[in-house]
Design brief:
Blueprint lengths: L12 E6 L8 H10 L3 E6 L9 H8 L15 H6 L4 E7 L1 H9 L5 H8 L4 E5 L3 H4 L2 H12 L3 E2 L3 E4 L5 E5 L3 H14 L7 E6 L4 E2 L5 E2 L6 H12 L3 E6 L11 E4 L3 H12 L4 E4 L6 E3 L19 E3 L3 H7 L5 E8 L3 H11 L4 E6 L11 E8 L5 E7 H15 L23 H15 L3 H4 L1
Parallel strand pairs: 1-2, 1-3, 3-4, 4-5, 8-11, 8-13, 11-12, 13-16, 16-17
Antiparallel strand pairs: 6-7, 9-10, 14-15, 17-18, 18-19
Helix pairs in contact: 1-2, 4-7, 9-13
């Protein structure tokens, strides 16, 4: 048994949901390990789980009553009581049925109702027959859950209760515990940060009913806002028109045009510590939009004259003081070359570069693969991930390479200035711009 100082889950409140898999017996030693590591564990069992292991076993090991029914006179509203102060919900083992129930939001029993009412992270450890895990419906439900930020572990390969061999075994205990600890470590690591996120497309009116827009769905921006809020940040989301529901615990500001988005972001820029500019802001707008609908028979074939919209990120970059600036670049050519150019032109701390052409375009897809270009350091290629999972990966990079940049060693040529930490925000910004200019010069330019 670990000493108190070594208990990594000390004081953490975990809801362990046990469902009707033959692997339910493995939840008993898992519970014991969680308790030994300092966690306060409440156990929820589905009716089928009680066919494999007695609720009394879990009650004795947890020291708490086991919740089994949605409607029980001695347990009023158990789904709300169980998750009210929970730090994490762990479903282990998770059957194909429980994956489907949670993915679809079916609140017809205690497990389903608990899942949709939970406001804490969820980790699910599947266990089922190999043919069930490989079924397209199970794969679709797993994908949906991951897109919503649920950590769904991969089952292990090996011999199964059916006599078959393949992927379907409950992940090893240490794998489950590592996932629990990792997810809890993310829970409040953005506390104290004020994150301003832009998302979605903009619409530039041609007349009273027609407009110019683009194919952005807003999914990446909404995923970034949701992830930052779940990790403890205060979040304001300025969004163009999308079909997406507002993320929980996020202040949403709807806009239509690039000018409106510029005004709303600028009004909140001083408040923010981090700007995440995921919006696909239209680059052009009609120079003379009509306030009335243009009738077909009235149009004589004259060209539609366009003008540039404001470069919002460039304008805000010029006003930065304490801010961390993160941009998104939708590219169809050379991702690295175009990305590096934009990174320096707009004085960004991080640029997320994604491709917009082909069947795997970033626009509209539930998944994306990107290249992260930090101001300092080498490019980071991120494999294709659900956008909600990708959002956490981007937030990790911002914390590691951008928010802690003030303690980073500055370039050798800056040594004579006494260190960036001793400078005012304005002077720090000026020196950063100078540094970027030096990085773009060749040896011939410096002679």
């Amino acid at each position: 048994m670990s000493s108190l100082s070594e208990k990594t889950l000390q004081g953490k409140r975990i809801v362990l949901c046990v469902t009707g898999s033959i692997a339910a017996y493995k939840a008993v030693p898992l519970l014991r390990t969680l308790v030994d590591d300092g966690a306060q564990v409440s156990v929820v069992m589905t009716p089928s789980a009680t066919q494999f292991v007695s609720p009394l076993t879990f009650e004795v090991l947890s020291g708490r009553p086991v919740l089994q029914r949605l409607f029980a006179g001695d347990q009023p509203m158990p789904h709300l009581r169980a998750t009210k102060d929970a730090d994490l919900v762990l479903v282990a083992p998770a059957t194909a049925n429980s994956l489907a129930k949670c993915a679809l939001g079916l609140a017809d029993d205690l497990l389903g109702t608990l899942f949709v009412s939970a406001r804490c992270p969820v980790v699910m450890a599947p266990a089922m027959d190999v043919e069930m895990w490989g079924h397209p419906a199970v794969a679709a439900h797993t994908r949906t859950l991951r897109e919503h930020g649920v950590v769904v572990l991969e089952p292990e390969e090996g011999s199964l209760a059916s006599g078959l061999t393949g992927k379907g075994r409950l992940p090893a205990e240490h794998v489950i515990l590592d996932a629990v600890r990792s997810r809890l470590a993310l829970q409040r690591d953005w506390s104290g940060q004020r994150v301003l996120v832009s998302a979605g497309p903009t619409r530039e009116p041609i007349d009273a009913v027609r407009f110019i827009t683009n194919a952005s769905s807003g999914k990446m921006g909404y995923a970034m806002a949701k992830a930052a809020a779940q990790r403890g940040a205060e979040v304001v989301l300025v969004s163009g028109p999308t079909a997406l529901p507002a993320p929980p615990n996020v202040t949403c500001v709807p806009v239509l045009t690039a000018e409106e988005m510029h005004q709303e972001l600028e009004a909140r820029f001083a408040w923010a510590t981090v700007l995440v500019m995921t919006a696909a802001v239209g680059d052009f707008r009609p120079r003379r939009p009509s306030s009335e609908k243009i009738k077909k028979h009235e149009w004589t074939g004259e060209p539609l004259e366009l003008e540039r919209t404001p470069d919002i990120l460039q304008a805000l970059s010029r006003k930065r003081t304490h801010h961390v600036l993160v941009g998104f670049a939708a590219e169809s050519g050379s991702l690295l070359d175009n990305g590096r150019k934009k990174l320096h032109q707009k004085d960004l701390d991080l640029l997320v570069v994604n491709r917009i052409t082909g069947p795997q375009s970033a626009f509209g897809n539930e998944t994306n693969e990107v290249i992260l270009l930090p101001r300092h350091g080498t490019p980071i290629e991120v494999e294709r991930l659900p956008k909600r999972v990708l959002a956490d990966r981007i937030l990790d990079t911002i914390r590691e390479q951008c928010i802690s940049a003030s303690s980073k060693t500055e370039a050798p040529w800056m040594a004579g200035f006494g260190g960036l930490s001793d400078l005012s925000d304005e002077n720090r910004r000026i020196l950063t711009v100078i540094e970027q200019e030096f990085e773009t010069l060749s040896p011939e330019d410096l002679r």
